[in-house]
């Protein structure tokens, strides 16, 4: 049934400010930030061992995340467990009297199937269940390739700027290095 804790989600008012602790102070690596329109949130992913810390910021004032933030302030939002078979796990939980928020699995970040357990059944903790799908590794690879493309593009932009600067120096439009602007005699 339960394989592992996949992630712990923390609601924040500002991802950059929160990274001051999670990335800068603790030293967790930020792999990427993803916009999740279905949840009206932006999520920063910081892996730690076999799990992740997710920093979740609402992107509109009417989302469930925004209501949570307004009511409770920043802090722990949910714990996510990876399961082998989400439909079977949900059926078993319902048979055991557990109240579900989602009646059927839906697609979450990265293409995984997700469903939430209502906090009334968990003593106040929102619990997410997730099952890895075939699309998730493909989606992660696509994100990594996109990041690599952005890095390559920025490197090319930097290279072009350096070449333009050096060409400007060589063309005589600027004084040679170390000449203090004096003209040769």
Give the secondary structure arrangement, pairings included.
Blueprint: E1 2-11, H1 15-25, E2 32-36, E3 41-48, E4 51-58, H2 64-72, E5 75-83, H3 86-95, E6 106-107, E7 113-117, E8 126-131, H4 135-170
Parallel strand pairs: 1-4, 5-8
Antiparallel strand pairs: 1-5, 2-3, 3-4, 6-7, 7-8
User: How would you name the CATH homologous superfamily?
Assistant: 2,3-Dihydroxybiphenyl 1,2-Dioxygenase, domain 1
Euclidean distance between termini CA atoms: 85 Å
| Beta content | 25-35%
Q: Tell me the strand order in the biggest sheet.
A: 2-3-4-1-5-8-7-6
Explain the overall architecture.
The protein is α+β, with helices and mostly antiparallel strands. The protein has a single domain, classed as 2,3-Dihydroxybiphenyl 1,2-Dioxygenase, domain 1. Helices cover 36% and strands 29% of the residues. Strands 2-3-4-1-5-8-7-6 form an eight-stranded mixed sheet. A hairpin with a 5-residue loop joins strand 6 and strand 7. The longest helix is centred in the C-terminal third of the chain and has 36 residues. The N and C termini lie far apart (85 Å). The mean pLDDT is 86.
């Amino acid at each position: 049934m339960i394989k592992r804790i996949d992630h712990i989600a923390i609601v924040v008012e500002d991802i950059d400010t929160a990274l001051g602790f999670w990335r800068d102070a603790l030293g967790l690596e930020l792999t990427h930030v993803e916009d999740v329109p279905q949840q009206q949130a932006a999520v920063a992913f910081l892996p730690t061992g076999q799990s992740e810390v997710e920093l979740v910021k609402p992107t509109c004032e009417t989302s469930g995340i925004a209501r949570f933030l307004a009511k409770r302030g920043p802090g722990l939002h949910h714990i996510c467990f990876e399961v082998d078979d989400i439909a079977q796990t949900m059926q078993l939980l319902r048979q055991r009297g557990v109240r579900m928020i989602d009646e059927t699995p839906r697609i979450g970040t990265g293409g995984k199937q997700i469903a939430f357990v209502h906090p009334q059944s968990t003593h106040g903790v929102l619990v997410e269940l997730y099952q890895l799908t075939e699309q998730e590794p493909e989606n992660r690879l696509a994100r990594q390739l996109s990041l690599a493309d952005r890095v390559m593009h920025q490197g090319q932009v930097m290279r072009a700027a350096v070449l333009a600067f050096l060409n400007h120096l060589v063309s005589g439009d600027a004084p040679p290095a170390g000449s203090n602007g004096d003209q040769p005699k």
